């Protein structure tokens, strides 16, 4: 099968508008006769469901949470990018496009990224109209702050709760359509298989998580918006319920999985403290606007801090190594996430880590508090040499910008981050890989669309901060509503899709078979036992740095662990009831397959780029070394029975508007 990205012809700044001018449309009377299933109700799924219903389609929306407003999009803290240039600092659609492609280490599809940059401005207007309380500056305009990998301020934010506020906007739009009867909402339902009829996605098999009932749902198209797969590492910043099941089931039915090895390690996470943890907590990247990252410059100071004999506030300024400012003077603490994460790992591996495990660096706000305090003192004609006054004024400014994040840190770590530097360390956060989609956001299954983090298309090998919210809302509000109409125009005479077809019988039988096996297994180990073992393999051998030996070992170890799981897992409870252990087992079963494909993809890609860092491919000073001659393509894997047998398909990445160069933030 040849991959066809369906990128329109013409200049890049005209592709999307010309494309929209020539696609087929469905008139309002016919939309009433067409059903669409939307799986996942975060920013991508919520915006898609609300917009499709507003247009007149009949939408069935599914989420495993008890409410759409509990989607993991709520956890996005720092902001959302858009090229409005409110700051007058030189931003533009082209610059947002360029920064996104460069930040993705030149492994993203140009046409999709340019479209994303184009519609970003509309997203902000849409959200303001919904009542999203973005921060504003003194003149009344929306405020902006900076994020990593860019030299302009284009990130719109609502304190440290941007994802929550945006999700509430999409949720209110959904509620309006639920009230009208245009959205049927299925809370506490999980998609366990996709149903293809004559090669087209025509429905799903879902499990009611309250009573265990297996249900059939049909539609003319299926839209999957179920987020990323970071929990394959067990410990990640994702919600514990976040999973890959919907996307993986689509993959096993014929949707190619693209670039699974591109996983983002976020540099500002609260460090791991022990084996008792089940997840990690992210501190927003927005903190890098004002926080300075450092470790002790002297090894003896680092050892003394780890042993509790010295406090960070006792380290003199000249004895601190602000290593990002030292290594990357142009961008400093605002280098992209992959660069910041590797730099932190390098310092900790060298022995300069600052917590008991040696895996933490400091994020310090003392300079920001002093700077803001003196500025406020001057504004109010107060004594800027009064240290106590300056501290109070500066702290008030920082608290206004980041207060809820500081409060969260103090509750978890039991230290006051206003007076003691935060400790941070990289952790698994976002996945750039996902199901392959064309320009229309359709997978290799006809009629199956993939939105947001669940697809691969916009971020390349690394995601710049504040771009996930942008992509999710762009896909749902402004892209899919056009592209899906072009496909559904052929279905206006199809009529309702019956659920008594043999294809539904086969899919339901498949789901029941897996559940029966897991529940009847007389194993001795819990689901978490296997998930933790998988996570350790993934972090140790497929984590921040990878090499051929480790990846080869990981593939074999994961395959062996998967065999053990099916023979020795113990799942208590019954199928016909609320059973969270069964839910976890079904999800971990999919991770045990994805993990092997993940390692296979990382092994095949003999280069370092973005979030994929191969130790064999680095420069003398430890930077990623891309191989554009041999690997400037999307690696899309076709399922062939088991992950080790997956077949590689390549989509060559052609850059006509941006020159391929080595990324530099120095």
What would you say this structure looks like, in words?
- Among the domains are: 268-427, Succinate dehydrogenase/fumarate reductase flavoprotein, catalytic domain (Flavocytochrome C3, Chain A, domain 1); 502-631, Methane Monooxygenase Hydroxylase, Chain G, domain 1.
- Helix 3 (43-55) packs parallel to helix 6 (162-180).
- The chain has helices at residues 15-22, 28-31, 43-55, 93-103, 110-130, 162-180, 245-252, 299-306, 323-327, 337-352, 366-379, 387-413, 468-488, 502-520, 527-542, 548-568, 580-604, 628-631; strands at residues 35-39, 58-62, 80-81, 155-156, 183-186, 189-197, 200-208, 214-218, 221-224, 257-258, 263-269, 292-296, 320-321, 361-364, 422-431, 434-435, 448-450, 633-638, 647-652.
- The chain has 666 residues and is α+β, with helices and mostly antiparallel strands.
- The radius of gyration is 25 Å and the shape is globular.
- The strands form 5 sheets. A 5-stranded parallel sheet has the order 5-2-1-9-17, sandwiched between helices.
- The protein is built from 18 helices and 19 strands.
- Strand 6 and strand 7 form a beta hairpin.
Helix count, per DSSP?
Answer: 18
Helix content: 25-40%
What is the distance, rounded to the nearest whole angstrom, between the alpha carbons of the first and last residues?
Answer: 42 Å
- Output the radius of gyration: 25 Å
- What is the structural class? alpha+beta
Overall mean confidence score, pLDDT: 96
- CATH first level of one domain: Alpha Beta
Membrane topology: Peripheral membrane protein
Family: Belongs to the FAD-dependent oxidoreductase 2 family. FRD/SDH subfamily.
Catalytic activity: a quinone + succinate = fumarate + a quinol
Pfam families: FAD_binding_2, Succ_DH_flav_C
